[in-house]
Each structure stands twice: as structure tokens, then as C-alpha cells.
Amino acid sequence: MGSRMSDTPLSIFGRPSLPKGPTEGPLTVEELQLAARNHAMPLEALRYDITPAGLHYLLIHFDIPMIDPADWRLSIEGSVARRLELTLDDIRARPRVSLPVTLECAGNGRSRLHPRPVSQPWVTEAVGTALWTGTPLSGLLAEAGVQADAVEIVFTGADHGFEKGEELDYARSLPVDYANRPEILLAYEMNGQPLLPQHGFPLRLLVPGWYGMASVKWLNRIEAVNRPFQGYYQATNYHYRSGPDDPGVPVQRIRPRALLVPPGDPDFLTRQRTLGAGPCRIEGRAWSGEAPIERVEFGVDGGWTAAELDPPQGEFAWRRWTCLWEAEPGEHVLSCRAIDAAGNIQPIEPNWNWIGVGNNMAQAIPVTVR
Ligand SMILES: Nc1nc2c(c(=O)[nH]1)N[C@H]1C(S)=C(S)[C@@H](COP(=O)(O)O)O[C@H]1N2
Ligand SMILES: [Mo]
Description:
By secondary structure, the protein is mainly beta. It folds into 2 domains: 29-250, Sulfite Oxidase, Chain A, domain 2, CATH 3.90.420; 257-369, Immunoglobulin-like, CATH 2.60.40. The protein is built from 6 helices and 22 strands. The strands form 5 sheets. Strands 14-15-22-21-17-18 form a 6-stranded mixed sheet, with no helix packed on it. Strand 1 and strand 2 form a beta hairpin. The chain is globular and about 70 Å long. The relative contact order is 0.15. Mean pLDDT is 95; it is low at 1-6. Residues 59, 105-107, 212-213 line the site of molybdenum atom. Residues 56-61, 103, 105, 157, 159, 170, 199, 212-213, 215-218 line the site of the ligand Nc1nc2c(c(=O)[nH]1)N[C@H]1C(S)=C(S)[C@@H](COP(=O)(O)O)O[C@H]1N2.
């Protein structure tokens, strides 16, 4: 018992301290606690063009704020000609746009890294595609009159907490020019319903094509600033860093990824799949925030075949693909990889970095064919 305790940090109470950096050690209770709060999208939900809201992944750093829409206001302030303070009805009265958008957490794939950065331990399914409805941010920025000296727009959510000893609001920024792109929305509906509390009710920013961290939930303040924003989630976190002393480069667009719906039936505990021999229609989805999806390949035991692509359902949403597989009896590992029009090809090997972001290594699904 004593010796087990020393190498197993698995006790909620009086547990030894967390590993200081990436680790090969057992999963900690802190990671389990995060994984239970922030769920992924079950892979079978890749079958839907639009992910039902309850199956969409979630990533919430602090607590979900409870917001009474009657008291809630959005302020647009800072380096603007007119400070605006808007109710939800004011925002709903502005031009209305709906866009299918695939969101993916930058940490997706983290738990497949060796050593593993200690954080939300995603496997491969921190993704979802919703039909988001809102008003283009550019219209409200024009109403407020962003001044010529402004360089960035800062977006702040109502949630609040601590990370690495710093007391924080969740806040992110975009360059002024980027913030004016037409696809950037202030979204108040997801799949035709008001946002759920966990997805940012009553209003969230949506930055299509970028990893999820850019799409600030529970948005209540927009500020035009005249120097680059240095907030924790902008300047410190969400960087590709080689080690603790490397400032790294900012995480922005979603790297290409394809996922397949695991065929056959799962074992409850291991999720090992079993299916019958013969022709098997494999289906999946592929997306990239860098450029349109150009090709998807389906892999069996290290050999690759081109998949068929369905028509795209929008510039910012995943694309369905299928491939007919002649399943032969035995043990196999199924995989897939996406290639985009900018020539980005999804790697087979892990993309390691200090905080475990952007690991788009190909999925690997062991199956037994009988
Ligand atoms: N205010 C706020 N916005 C946030 C977050 C957060 O914790 N607080 N998490 C971000 C991250 S890291 C991701 S991946 C997405 C997740 O959005 P979803 O939970 O709606 O899928 O929200 C982003 N916006
Ligand atoms: Mo995320």
C-alpha cells in the first residue's frame, strides 16, 4: 500500500502533488475530474452533419456562469467613437446569419502524447459541428466606430478563476482587421435554440476556422485596445512551445484531421470493436481550418486508400467521407488522414509540444473481424 501510494497519485484526498510538467505517470484525479466535466463527442456522432447540442464536446475552464438574460448587457468600449451597451434583444434585432461551423479544442489529441502534458486529457474526439446563429461582429464594431489607433479587439467572458496562480477572466483578442471578417459572429443560437448554459448563454463569439479557444463564451465585454493584448489565454497559454522557457508561437487555425465512425460493436470496458467479415462501409468526417479538404485516405494496417468525399456543407464545417472496406478475418488497425488544399497532410506520428496543443496525429482504431 505504502509503495503503491508513492507512484500512484490517485486519491482525491491528501494526494501527493501533481507532476510539474509532462509525465508518463498514471492519469491523475485532476485529469479525471476535468475529463468528467468536459466531455468529448462520442465518435458515433460523426454520423450527423450537425451535431445534436448534447453530443457536442465541451471545454469550460472555470465554472459555468449563471446569467439572467434580463440583467445581462454586452458593452463595446475602449478606443471607439461611441460606447455601446446592448441587451440580448438589441443584438437579436441586428442582421441575422446562420453558419455551420466545426469547433475543435486545441488540446484534442493531448492524451496520446508521450510524455503527456497534464491538462484536459482528450483522446481524439474534442470536436463538434453546430449551426450557429448570430449577428456579424463587424456590424456592431462599425456602429461603435472603432478608432484608427485600435490594433486589437479584446473579448471577455463572464467566467472567472485561477490558472498557474494568476487570477483571470477568460479573455482573448483578435487583430482589428481579422475581427471584421464576415464569418465572425456574435452567436446567440446553436442548432436553432438559444445557447445552452455550457455553450456560452446568452452570447458567445464564434471564430470559424480557429481552434475553440478563440470563441469566447458568456461574452459580456468587447474592448478596442491600442496595444496587443497580454492576457493569459492570449499571450501565455495557447502557444506551440518546445519547453517551459520557449515563448512559442500562438495557436490559431485548426490543423487538418479526419475521424472515422468505429465500425462493429464495442466491448464495454476497452471499446475494442468486433465485426463480421465482408464488405463494410466506413464513414467519417474531415476538416481543416487552414484550407478546404482536398483528400481523405482510409488506412488499414498501414496501407492507404483514397476515400470518397461528399459535397462540402460550408466553408467552415466538416466534410463527410466514405470508403468501402472488404473486412477480412483477423486483427486490424483502422485509420484515416486528411489532406487539405494548402498541402497540409495529417501526420501519423504525434505532434508533441509542451502544453499538448494541435496534436492532429491520425486516429487508430483496433478491430477484430470474425
Ligand atoms: N468564456 C470562456 N470561453 C471559452 C472557454 C472558457 O473556458 N471560457 N473555453 C474555450 C475553449 S478552450 C474551447 S475549446 C471552446 C469550447 O466551446 P464549447 O464548449 O462550446 O464546445 O470554448 C472556448 N471559449
Ligand atoms: Mo479548447
